[in-house]
Amino acid sequence: MLPLATLSIYCLAIMAASMLGGYVPLCIRLTHARAQLLMSFVAGLMLGVSLLHLLPHAIDEAQSVDSVTQWMVGGFVAMFLLLRAFHFHQHEPRAHEVDEACPHEHQHAHGSSSVNWLGVAVGMSIHTLIDGVALAANVLAETEEAGSSWLAGVGTFLAIALHKPLDSLSITSVMTAGGWSPRVQHLANFAFSLMCPLGCALFLLGLHHVVERQHFALGCVLGLSAGVFLCIALADLMPEIDLHDRDGVRLYLALLLGLALAYGIHSIEPAHEHNHEHPHTQASGVSGE
């Protein structure tokens, strides 16, 4: 299977997951316990994908631990600042809780909905574009190493696909609190679902402009993506998990299950041959002729 075909399938599935997440507040009531379990599982998965998949591929591609770690730190800090600047993640629908607990607080939330919506729109769009870049970079790297795109990047795909419903849930929760109609919410959610495919396309187009150092550039992007995933797991999802409540044991198990899945995916991924020539190797070969 060609990398482009694999990416197309992944993107369609991620779009479907995003749309599904946007329908959750309109169709079913996502309880606090269920949301906590899902966040814990996805946090473990994203943590494992960052350190067990993206980071090793990045080092292999760039052939420079220093460069990769610098890009990884840059990705972590950039995503951390993005999370704090726009406050765009709200992984549980809070409209019902606010209505029941404090009507005055609901009125205040409604009055500030335009500011919240701007933060959600900007933050989520940038965040999801980066997800698309990470997915494309990982699929290309694993396809090149294994000589086949079958299941290439499946770990990154699962981490994104399972996280997107939470992101869509954030959007529709804020819009519901702001009084937006379901039709407008669906349109906004559909536009959001296109961000990941757009990130893939931008990366594939941009890679052609660095032909001479494609491997190094790919490794740096993978390092950046590893930092972004690590930040989402450690600074976004895990702080929202209440490990001290009555479901603490279940949440710990869900976290470990996510990590175990990330580790287990390695056994079904294509074998990594690591036999491609890197730019500095090619350059030395040319100079020797």
Structural description of this entry:
The structure is a single chain. By secondary structure, this protein is mostly helical. It has one domain. 79% of the residues lie in helices and 0% in strands. The protein has 12 helices and no strands. It has helices spanning 3-27, 32-62, 65-86, 95-101, 103-111, 113-146, 154-177, 182-193, 195-207, 214-237, 248-265, 279-287. It is globular and about 50 Å long.
Count up the helices. 12
Q: How many β-strand stretches? A: 0
**How many domains?**
1
Q: Note poorly predicted spans.
A: 95-115, 272-289
**What is the N-to-C succession of helices and strands?**
HHHHHHHHHHHH
Percent of residues in helices comes to over 70%
Shape: globular
Distance between the termini: 36 Å
Strand content: under 5%
Arithmetic mean pLDDT = 76
Major sheet description:
none
Structural class by SSE content: mainly alpha
Question: Notable features of this structure?
Answer:
289 residues, mainly alpha, 12 helices, 79% helix, 0% strand, disordered C terminus
